[in-house]
Design goal:
single chain; seven-stranded antiparallel β-sheet; mainly beta; five-stranded antiparallel β-sheet; Immunoglobulin-like
């Protein structure tokens, strides 16, 4: 890096300059006096002025603002609390440092105004979530100080930037212990001449109990019949009943009552009463509802239904409230719970007739509740829907009051036939019966126990290998017979919707079993039935039937069960044997993952142990160098082959390869003999060979030619620019023919022969073509000379290709037919050794 440029500011995508500005290892920025988020972004430069995309190295947040707080007193409206615990929340204006808890205190109300905050202790922080502290009062507010305004103060809280808040003491709440109203509670129902508890509680404006209330209340019912009597059940104050002919009573609360008293009312007449309470200024809030006084107590419930229903179809259930005399309790307005002993998730309820409030128990519940209305006159009707075929008992209860269980059970029968379910083991053995159960089902998967229809059993398997039989069932069964994989069965009522069959399949295969009847089919949930092979029964040997002496022939051996299925799980050991000449036969393993051992020299046997991955099939090769007809046998685990393959006829050896021979070296332009011998599969010369061969090389095609040296067949040279030749043997060649190859190029060549799908064995090695041989000398001169004057004579060595033999180093003799005594020689040019004849 050569340098960099910098952006410092509030833009998160701010761009540093595109020219180098800085080279120092350090860089200083001026911090802001304001607030906000600032970004330091950098772009780097190399020595060639190339620059990078900008990246943000640091993000700085400047915060100089002190946090503020909002105090929320709960529940709203704030304050107006009687004696007890005070709860409020502190909501800060920003994220706070939760390791520095705020100091929270309060100044309780008093008769003379605010008091010292230490009077009742301090507040403690109990939780902090999303910048909101929730704090709870650690002491009970002392109401003896009287009503008034209390204040809350918060200080010493700090935000994550370390700014400490300004003290906040402006939040107040009100303590109010003044009586505002009374709350009456009772059961809502009572019996004639039976005392009923009436609880009366003094409350302030926020419905807190005024525990120090000591006023006097009057209770009444607005009933003018004069048949009401009151009594005190619990309370330490002063009680007075209004007496005969009055429905009122008075009670003066004691301080020890803590604002609560329990009275009892007794009405000698069936009536609907509205109970009221007042201290002359304040009254009850009338939230309790009427008190219904009944003549006779609830005794039990009576349930009625048809006794039978169909799965998934609504069945009417009537519930009648009875009094202790067995009469319908027409004024019953209580709540009952409907329940069963059935399958909860299969049962649902609904209201059929009734003016009250109904609620079903929902999914996975077999219950429902119903609150009777005055208009019901003690009778309500419901529907129950059960999708499970079962026998159930229905019950109705209001607390300890239950039904009298006279209705008997409700028997839920299955719905109409919807499908069939097939069950089997998933696997079977060829030829061995496997159980198949077929069950008739309705749409809710209930067994249709009353099914009496006719079904057809079928498969996608091999028809003539499959048969059916009936195992259990009282109906009528018919197998489809030979060549059919079907059967029919008519269910009997005593089958209860289920019948069992046996299927026998003599074929190894994966089959899908189907059932159909009355336009319905099985749900195909059972999966396929995989039929595996039976025990090993025999082996099947297969081969081509003919072979040539010395040539390997593939022999396949397959393990079979008694039904002719390949025994794919066979892992036994077999012995291979023949009726041939033991000393000329050998074996080899071609395909198979098991363990193979050849019998060795002098033996025509081999052993093989199958591997699971062989799937019962292994392939071997047999090589017999004798012309003969042999029977191949396979045996193992006490079983033999079925001898269906016939004999293997080993005929005369066939052309197997060619053998080339030459001297290994030659000279450019000079013919070199090449002999080609046809060999049979035993390695002998195939004297009767009359096939056609092609001669070829990897040399320079344009400089190579072929010729026939000896042979009585048909020869054809490939011609100019070709290094190939073709020859068809004659029977009189006895498998051997000789050619000449002439190569005008100095090179190393490999000669190849091919014919009848066979090639030479490449044992001859390369043929190295050296330089061409000397052929003659060429003499050149001017044609005339002058007596006594030197005349140049040039002599050039010429090779067989007509080219100067530049590597010639031999000795020549020059001579003339002239007068010897007048002729002399001298060396004009040349580096060799020269001698004049003298």
């Amino acid at each position: 890096m050569s340098g960099y440029s910098v952006y410092w500011g509030t833009d998160s995508d701010g761009e540093p300059g595109t020219t180098q500005e800085q080279t120092n290892a350090s860089y200083e920025v001026t911090t802001s006096t304001g607030e906000g988020t600032f970004y330091l972004r950098v772009r780097t430069f190399d020595s060639l002025g190339h620059y990078s995309a900008p990246i943000t190295l640091f993000t700085f947040i400047y915060d100089n603002t002190k946090p503020t707080v909002t105090i929320s007193v709960l529940p709203n409206p704030a304050g107006h609390r009687a004696v007890g615990e005070l709860e409020f929340k502190l909501i800060f204006s920003e994220s706070m440092d939760t390791s520095a808890s705020p100091v929270v205190s309060y100044d309780p109300a008093g008769s003379t105004g605010s008091q010292n905050a230490a009077y009742n202790g301090s507040w403690s922080t109990t939780s902090y979530t999303n910048d909101t502290y929730t704090v709870y009062n650690s002491n009970i507010i002392d109401s003896s100080t009287g009503d008034g305004t209390a204040s809350i103060s918060v200080s010493q809280a700090q935000d994550v930037a370390g700014n400490i808040m300004l003290d906040d003491t402006d939040d107040t709440f009100t303590i109010d212990t003044t009586i505002d109203h009374f709350v009456i509670s009772h059961d809502g129902s009572a019996m004639v001449d039976t005392p009923e508890d009436i609880t009366i509680t003094a409350k302030n404006v926020t419905n807190c109990t005024v525990s120090d209330f000591t006023g006097t209340i009057t209770v009444s019912t607005l009933d003018e019949t004069g048949e009401i009597a009151w009594s005190l059940k619990t309370g330490s104050g002063t009680f007075s009943d209004g007496g005969s002919g009055s429905d009122t009573a008075t009670y003066a609360f004691s301080a020890s009552d803590n604002g609560v008293v329990v009275l009892q009312i007794t009405d000698s007449t069936a009536d609907t009463l509205d109970v009221e309470a007042t201290d002359g200024t304040h009254t009850d809030d009338d939230t309790e509802g009427n008190l219904v006084v009944s003549t006779t107590a609830l005794g039990w419930f009576v349930i009625s239904h048809d006794g039978a229903a169909v799965a998934g179809a609504p069945e009417t259930i009537t519930v009648t409230a009875k009094d202790t005399n067995g009469d319908t309790k027409t004024d019953y307005v209580g709540t009952i719970t409907l329940d069963t002993n059935g399958t909860a998730e299969a049962i649902s309820w609904s209201l059929s007739s009734g003016s009250g409030t109904f609620s079903d128990g929902g999914p996975n519940s077999d219950t429902a509740t119903y609150t009777f209305s005055n208009n019901d006159n003690g009778v309500a009707t419901f529907t129950i829907n059960d999708t499970k075929a079962e026998t159930i008992n229905i019950s109705a209860a209001d607390g300890s009051i239950t039904d009298n269980d006279t209705e008997g059970n409700l028997i839920i029968s299955p719905a109409s036939i919807d499908h069939f379910v097939i069950i089997h083991d998933g696997s079977a053995v060829a030829g061995i019966a496997d159980g198949v159960t077929v069950t008739a089902k309705d749409a809710y998967n209930n067994t249709k126990t009353d099914y009496t229809g006719t079904i057809t059993l079928d498969t996608n398997g091999t028809e003539d290998a499959i048969s059916w039989s009936l195992v259990s069932g009282s109906g009528t069964f018919t197998d489809g017979g030979s060549g059919s994989d079907t059967a029919t069965y008519s269910f009997s009522t005593s089958d209860n919707g289920t019948a069992s069959f046996n299927i026998v399949d003599t074929k190894t295969e994966a089959i899908d079993i189907d059932t159909s009847g009355d336009g319905k089919t099985d749900d195909d949930s059972e999966g396929n039935l995989s039929v595996g092979p039976a025990a090993i029964d025999h082996f099947v040997v297969s081969h081509d039937g003919s072979a040539s002496a010395g040539v390997s022939e593939n022999v396949t051996v397959t393990a079979k069960d008694s039904y002719g299925n390949t025994k794919t799980d066979y892992t036994g050991t077999i012995t291979l044997d023949t009726s041939g000449t033991a000393s000329t036969i050998s074996w080899a393993l071609i395909t198979g993952e098991g363990s193979f051992t050849d019998g060795g020299a002098g033996s025509d046997t081999a052993t093989y142990t199958y591997n699971e991955s062989d799937n019962g099939v292994a392939v071997f090769s047999i090589n017999d160098t004798t012309q003969e007809s042999i029977d191949i046998d396979a045996s193992g685990d006490g079983k033999t082959d079925d001898d269906s393959e016939g004999n293997l006829v080993v005929g005369a050896p066939v052309i197997w390869s060619f053998v080339l021979s030459h001297d290994g070296s030659g000279n450019a332009g000079a013919p070199e003999e090449v002999t080609v011998t046809a060999k049979d599969s035993l390695g002998n010369t195939k004297t009767d060979y009359t096939g056609t061969i092609t001669l070829d090389t990897n040399g320079t095609p344009a400089s190579i030619s072929w010729a026939l040296q000896n042979g009585n067949g048909s020869f054809n040279d490939g011609g100019s620019s070709s290094d190939t030749a073709i020859y068809t043997y004659a029977s009189s060649d006895n498998g051997i023919v000789t050619f000449t190859i002439t190569d005008n190029t100095q090179e190393t060549i490999d000669i190849d022969v091919s014919g009848d799908g066979k090639t030479d064995d490449d044992s001859e090695g390369n043929l190295i073509i050296g330089s061409a041989l000397l052929d003659h000398f060429l003499i050149a001169h001017d044609g005339s000379g002058v007596a006594g004057a030197d005349e140049n004579i040039t002599i050039t060595a010429i090779d067989t290709l007509g080219q100067t033999k530049t590597d010639y180093t031999g000795t020549i003799t020059v001579d003339t037919n002239g007068t010897p005594s007048t002729i002399s020689w001298a060396l004009q040019s040349g580096l060799g050794t020269f001698t004049d004849g003298g």
